[in-house]
Amino acid sequence: MATNKLLGYLESRKNIAGSAGGLAGLALTFVGVAGPYWPVVVGGLYGAGALIAPPERPALPDFPDPSAQLDEIRNDFERLKDYLADVELPPAAAGRLTELTELLAALLDPGWVTEVLVQDPEGVHTLSRAVRQDVPEAVDTFVRTRWWTRLAPGQESPERHLERQLTLLHEEAERLAAGLRETEARRQESHTRYLEDRSK
Questions:
Q1: Per-residue pLDDT reduced to its tens digit, 118-138
Q2: What is the Cα–Cα distance from 194 to 173, expressed in whole angstroms?
Q3: Residue ranges for the chain with pLDDT beneath 70
Q4: Angle at 144 between CA 131 and CA 155, to 5 degrees
Q5: Phi, psi at 153, each rounded to 5°
Q6: What is the SS3 assignment for 62?
């Protein structure tokens, strides 16, 4: 650790600027300007160079790019589908879930959709949240609540809550798809205007 810090300082801007100042001090010594006080001159110029050097900028963290994030979400989506295949749902909720998973699969499909989606970090986050959190939690909560409802009937049906949750998630995914479609439409319109301007 100490060795790494020492090597880091030796390569730092402060040391390089200080060394340049120290060399200038040695040059002044050789031409006779510093006289007997040359160690103070060399040390002072080194310190001045180190002080005026710009601070080191720490390296940015190496986060995965949106394409890599989408690959991870696709893998998680496959695991989610395996989980959902083992869950027994009432027909209405199962139908809503199928519609939702089909839309999520279309949004995660590699190809031109991905090319548009990587330009929308919020969209990537929305997909990640739906796959990793919202859908599994909605289904798992339904399964647990249904068990308790059998012990204490008379409460609001957990099926209705699940259907409403899946409907809301489907609407959110539809808004994301509409936003991506609008982005492509704007891109097409921009290209049309470019071609029209070029032909004038």
A1: 888 899 999 999 999 999 999
A2: 32
A3: 1-11, 15, 33-34, 54-57, 63-64, 147-156
A4: 115
A5: -65, 165
A6: coil
- For residue range 172-189, list pLDDT tens digits in order: 999 999 988 888 888 888
- Please name the residue that has the structure tokens 């589908």: 81
Contacts of 132 (CB under 8 A, 6+ apart): 73, 76, 80
**Measuring CA to CA, how many Å separate 174 from each of 38, 47, 127, 168, 198?**
75, 62, 11, 10, 36
Which two tokens mark 151? Answer: 């012990």
200: tokens are 């004038």
CB 138 within 8 Å of CB 82: no
Residue 54 CA, distance from chain mean position: 30
**Which residue, among 83, 73, 93, has the nearest Cα to 159 in the 3D structure?**
93
Cα gap 104→117, rounded to integer Å = 12
Identity at 113, one-letter amino acid code: V
For tokens 């710009």, what's the residue? 54
**Cα–Cα distance measured from residue 157 to residue 140, given in angstroms and rounded to the nearest whole number:** 15
